[in-house]
């Protein structure tokens, strides 16, 4: 198992390398001169050039990349062009709230999604199924930011029950994670339903019934676990969607997380911050998929992990 | 002389699709004696598998339902039992093995767990007792290293081994009746020979009855005491295995037996039955075999023949004999 | 040819009406009541989009500084916005924009993705690896960010929104088609065509592509919903259509400042987006039930 | 020699399996040693259990797969080393029929399109000319014009297989490779198709490479047969000789395992122990030694050679024959 | 097989651990927020003031700060030699007195004695020198390019006297001495990396903690040299969503919110617990018109635009009725402001002017701006207004970086693609140079400045240069009067309006002021 993980991590490295190059190229490809933005609208050409020199933006791109990567390997994410603060400092207070946010979103979405999906499948073409599926389809059809705005209006402004934003205390996570998870919840519910329906048609479910097992045992012990396998894959893939969605949700809820930092930094062409944030996102995504793969092998004995 | 273990009377089963009912079984009649191997033969779509599912009442998740008829098993009518009572029977007194051992075992559950499930439910053994029982069953069906196999997953076993596991599972509560639905169709010939041999041996040892459902006349000839031939949801002929192969009465049985190429038999041309099996939603009027029958008479296209005893222990559903006996 | 045992058992076939895939599809699709209603809704939307300039009660661009942010009333059924423009008229015009943006981007993405996916799945090998690895990399960036980047590079405007939404749809289409291709490739009739010496082009076009069509149709329908959402998210972040455009996302974005004071400005376009996306998703679901053999169970 | 339509020599095919970047590659020997020939107008059958490589052999001959080693001559021309672009001639003279009549016909094409596909690929005939040919061939396989406008899935298995045969026949091929053509069919239909195949052979002088696991069917249709086990032909010869006087223990066991449709002929069988080994790691020496009731020490170490037996064209590979 | 089970357990443990970390963290925070006491009415004097602002703080480095909010926080902690009063005019702070030489090149400051930094260091001329030298050396600091790079030498004749000589005249220098806050020389020498994170100054408050993106806290410095009673602790919170800020003020979660979103003013104005203040600012909104390009090289076209736009409607529609029309090229709060006769809306006259210029049917043009919702709103307004005189305007809202690239990427006026730019400008009320030179001087064409109107008037150039080279205030006033008159008539802009800044304060809070520049001054904040 350990060997497998090491192997997988080794496989990740080249991907991260490619991602780092791509994101580097990508941010330098976007028009916009950070030196100009740092210097201000009223700055003279000389001022701008001074700033550019000072920030090392006059070096050729490959040189900038190498120095960035060199610093990165020493654990130094660089210094923000906009704030002059170390990027790691800017991340430290924003990273965990973002992680919690995605995590809460993922968790409620998974639990509720599985529940709705399973109920829908078991009561196929009966009212619980219809209700469940209407909920699910609505969930993916709602624009995230709109849902967020409405939730703020209802729960924060009208009812005053929950804070409108920030990351202070569990309460402030409720609305953003609700908004963020809605889409995933729907996806999971739909996949669980169809996967479970497919599983319920299989021969081994019939075998289970032929053994004289209770229907609940058949569904929970035999069917559910098998139908989880595709659901896990989907959930993993959707995580990328979550990261993307967090950008919008964090904006709506003025949530101090990585997504908003990224948007702000893009606006300011704060290269070191964008670069590191993108890398972090990619790594997060890759790690989640690694976890999914491991989970997958736990669920599916056919995927043997050689130790 | 012999006691009837299972008696199926006028069994009718229907499926609903788009609010339309399609009858697949059109009144099936047959019985199984204690300690007997009964073969149920017929081509695909004739309803033989559905007959077995009807007996087990395994309709969950489908729209199938028994709309008429009785199934007497050990004096109780299975049609009238509650779901709970039925569950108590399934796996305990009536067990079943299926065609495809690859898909009939749960891929994510260890063999041991799957085997002990019916043991724990029906025999009320605790975990370790059940495990021991399971290992004993695996030994019985000729699996080497049974104590290791219980901790393995189905995909780690070969097809033959899996079918052995299925048999062990079916036999674990010592059932009176084993329904084997095409148990060897998915297996290679040499493995089929092993499994058939095993089933024969177990049947003799345990003195149980087997309802063997197959399309392979060779398997029937090898295994069965008596044979029921089905066509389009009905029994067309019932006879002892010797009678049937030596002197088939129904034109369908005749055609079927004649169309099988037999080893060592030199024929330039095989006999065959013309046409195709009719679609269940679009059954011909009268005798369902009439459109394909060489000996069809006008009445055959009009009216369905009854199933009549034509000799000792022989039944046949054909106007040829009905007219004869009249 | 007397020796051949001829059997023209026409009866079993001729009793059924002649089979036509379109009729069959129609017959099954009509049974999907929800999806059917949803498609009627979408057809209406398309009609509204086509007739928009004729049915809009007011000029959707004309401001009226004396009637700012009026709640829904008899004259303005959906109220007015922050310039006193009639929201209903803007909504009607917006149908045209939102639908055409999403249709265009989805179809472009579909065409490109399908070509890539077909090639990737059919030829396999290094081509497959390159295409799939690149889509992996694309996937590892949050898709909205990708769109933001593209718009940042290309500049704002509806055309660039279309390009952005197209680009981030390509990998999904490529993956879907690749999967379907791999599956279709396993069909014996593909092998049969190969054994007859059919060229790759013919096999891909005649035997493999048609197999991917039904999953494509389903995906396209769902994707249109996603595209509407993506385009409006971009507009919401100020990167989409120019602000006077009555695009639904823009309406939402500019309206959000008035949520507390004139909530109809936000709620109305939000509902329009929601219902439209919902309709497309419901149609997709219905199509899946009709077209996807996997979920067909009787 | 000119009478030989197909000659296969020492055919080998191995597949490489890899699980990922860092895994060692594994090789599967799907076909390790196959040699035989088919005369014009004759049927040669390859028989064996699943995984023995008989279908792979068929695919190699039709060049759906590239042989790793060995040579294939069709009508005197070597095709094993030719590129796809050079195979036009061969693609016309060799046609295939497949096991699953459901999967081998494109469900989205009308029957006439399916049958005309080889014509579309290889000829420049006009639509009406193609149509004419299609109707002719439909007649031959026992279908009518009426069927040509329909889709394949509207037909029953037997009818579909007829369509498949019509498609193979339309180019007037010299050799048809039939991969388990009847094993998916019900017995009553199976016999119709077998009869049709035999009739066509008589009429057009086609040769068949008939691949099947069903010994009874094989006995009925073949002139010569080859018995395969784990990628190699272990015994081959004229049908009558092999069936009446099998020499390889595997052939014997196989023949004895077939259930006989006659209850009076129930007999003691040779039951082989164990399962068929995986081609991923085939046993050493004679690949059959793990299951052979007569295995000797030498069988574990040495591969037996192919030997000519008393009767003409009867070959077998077994150490027992040396005793 | 045990291995598999082991993994399941491990996974479970990991999940639980993350959960627990998450939860425990939350609990802590929830407790602390409950303990803040704002929610429970207490009779005791409150000790913590929460200030909700609209944006994140960027940096605490006073020499490198461009944003208002960071500035507001800093000004409670740090002080400069000079400072600004409520009207934005220059006053003495750390300097007891100062003088400027006739040639406007030498600045001499006399410093207050006995002042200590928060870290115990003494404030003296040496400390000032260390600060100024830091700015002079590091070219990436904002203040470097704003005057300090012009310093020729710094002399410290005595411990509390400092003399600064410039290479060339630079009239905003006094303002710069107000902006350049002095931080402890120890931190400059020993911990320069910490300056943007936790500055050490001489102000009334000292730095507490800063959780990026969440809050920043400052605490009362009890050894402050200045006078006054003030609250013990102030917490600044960035709350970008307008509605949320208002909600915080209403619930008392925040004692001060800044700014109050204009569309929400109505919601809070009636509340007796809340006071709403409106302050005229130096923030001028305008559309700069590329005077170098056809058809805008004709002043008639530009004047026509000015006549076409209804400034009152602008304030009503775009600014929620807040603000005043821009009736000069600088805001009324800026020094030397001279009111001009505003262009009142007159469509007929506008059409007439267009006709005279040769465009009776109008023409097509485009307007650029960033993606702020306010900007987009303003651009739409311009579009609607110009439509009345037949001019079709296409709106191009660009993301800030792209926009600046498009504008400053043009190396010569010929390269410029810009036609109209919707933008705003603000400078210190005391600094008229910066409110004019970068915008109207011909040396300031992009990329060398923000003269995006490519306004080129040699006479105006001359006046500006002259005003910059002297220290005579009366003369300066005269010169700037002429400049305003000339430029306003030439109409290189569409003059729109000057913002009013709105901030909300709970009734029990006093001493909170907003300067015209937009800086929030809380150093004298207290509860009543």
Compact summary:
The complex is a heteropentamer of chains A (307), B (326), C (298), D (323) and E (528). Chain C is an all-alpha fold and 298 residues long.
Question: How does this structure look, described?
Answer:
The complex is a heteropentamer of chains A (307), B (326), C (298), D (323) and E (528). Chain B is α/β, with parallel strands linked by helices and 326 residues long. Chain B folds into two domains: 4-93 and 176-195 and 207-260 and 271-277, P-loop containing nucleotide triphosphate hydrolases (Rossmann fold, 3-Layer(aba) Sandwich); 102-174, no CATH class. Chain B has helices at 48-56, 83-89, 111-123, 127-140, 146-149, 159-171, 189-206, 217-223, 241-246, 251-259, 319-325, and strands at 4-17, 20-33, 37-41, 65-73, 76-77, 94-97, 177-181, 209-214, 226-231, 234-240, 308-311, 314-316. In chain B, α4 (127-140) packs across α6. Chain C is mainly alpha-helical and 298 residues long. Chain C contains eleven helices and no strands. With 528 residues, chain E is α+β, with helices and mostly antiparallel strands. Chain E has helices at residues 2-34, 68-77, 125-137, 142-145, 173-179, 185-190, 242-251, 265-269, 299-308, 311-317, 347-357, 373-387, 400-408, 432-440, 458-468, 473-490, and strands at residues 48-53, 79-80, 82-84, 90-92, 95-100, 106-111, 151-158, 161-166, 181-182, 205-211, 215-220, 233-238, 256-258, 274-289, 324-325, 364-369, 392-397, 420-425, 493-506, 509-510, 513-514, 520-521, 526-527. In chain E, α9 (299-308) runs antiparallel to α11 (347-357). Chains in contact: A-B, A-C, A-D, A-E, B-C, B-D, C-D, C-E. At the A-E interface, α2, α3, α5, α7 and α11 of A face α1, α4, α7 and α13 of E.
